[in-house]
Amino acid sequence: PSCEDTCCVGWPVHIDKTTYKAYRKENHPALQPVYASMSRIADAGNDTEYAVLQLGAQLGNCPAHQDGMCAVHANLGESYLSDTCQNFPRITRSVNGQIEQAMSLSCPEAARLALLDEDGFDFVEATVSVRERVVHGTVASDSITPEIMNEVRIFCMNLIRTRELAIWQRLALLGTFCDALERDRLDGHRHGIMAIIGDFTQAIEGGELIASLNAFPPNYEAQAMVFATLWGVNGFNATSAFQGLQMQRISAGLGADASGQTSAIDLVAAYRRGLSRLDERLEAAPWLLEHYLLNEMFTQLFPVGDDTYTAYLQLVARFGLLRLLMAAQCNTNGELPPLSVLSSTVALQCRRFQHDPAYTAKVNRSLSESGWGSLDKLFSLIRT
């Protein structure tokens, strides 16, 4: 009940077919609001989203969310939770016969665990209990073997973990690598993925790639304007008091007045000041943004897919937006916010944007159509 931004408020609660039938057989008095709010989805395409709980009028509260606790869990036990509720915030996937599990950072506690501890992203082997229905499968590629796919993922994650480089340099190198992969794919893999990895490793160790990246100057004005625009795409309506307070702080940190308005000049100045203070705040946890990127890459199977460059474009958009929000949180005249505020900012960003496929598609399309989707333009958007 102490969760500051519970997943039981503001999101539709889908009920799988098995759970729906189990609820129809029950008649527990404490769960009458739950039974009454269940509604079949007429055009449900699968058994996972078979029905939905109609949320309450006040902040979209799940009818089972009573006094900060789940009435289903309390009265019937964990086995009666729907697939959605039993699984979140875990993300479980089967990859080449191996089960991988991570957490969605839209959960505030998951964000704290993953981002604030230096070893929060160490890989471990463990026994997990998971319903087979919630395990995501992967589609095999005709042109890439599972072994090469694994090599690509490991190379990309190791690149992001190279702490001798600034985080923007790691992200820029990743983009250069993804661009090479995409060009090789379009060319029928004539050069070969393992050869590309070898060439990149040599170029990074030789220093020539880093030197070429440093030739691109940062464009703080574009960073502030582009990512502030993306921030406004989904609107500013909050679904919880916690979100509302966070968004007010972010708005003020971006130079907005009481009505939420700011000029381009004030926005850029606020962003630059906040960015310098963010660097100061991250001295206590220099791995925070690294862990965020790793979590995104791991859960999205980055960069495996039909279009590795589009996957990279999405990663840059999310990173740039998050950095803007964190800079806004750090743009204060007094003490810097605690690291927990930064992890909460990640949870807010993930919750508001990363669970919305339509928003992701809109952002990718917007960056490409506005001319910011090319690699050289992206470098100026991520360099500090």
List keywords for this structure.
globular, 384 residues, 7 strands, mainly alpha, single chain, two-stranded antiparallel ribbon
Q: What's the layout of helices and strands?
A:
Layout: E1 13-15, H1 17-25, H2 32-37, E2 38-40, E3 51-53, E4 65-66, E5 69-70, H3 71-76, H4 83-87, E6 90-95, E7 98-103, H5 108-115, H6 146-160, H7 167-186, H8 193-206, H9 208-213, H10 220-233, H11 241-253, H12 264-281, H13 288-299, H14 308-330, H15 339-354, H16 357-369, H17 375-382
Antiparallel strand pairs: 1-3, 2-3, 4-5, 6-7
Describe the protein in words:
This protein is mostly helical and 384 residues long. Helices cover 54% and strands 7% of the residues. It has 17 helices and seven strands. The chain has helices at 17-25, 32-37, 71-76, 83-87, 108-115, 146-160, 167-186, 193-206, 208-213, 220-233, 241-253, 264-281, 288-299, 308-330, 339-354, 357-369, 375-382; strands at 13-15, 38-40, 51-53, 65-66, 69-70, 90-95, 98-103. The protein is globular, with a radius of gyration of 22 Å. It starts with 12 loop residues before the first strand and ends with a helix. The mean pLDDT is 90.
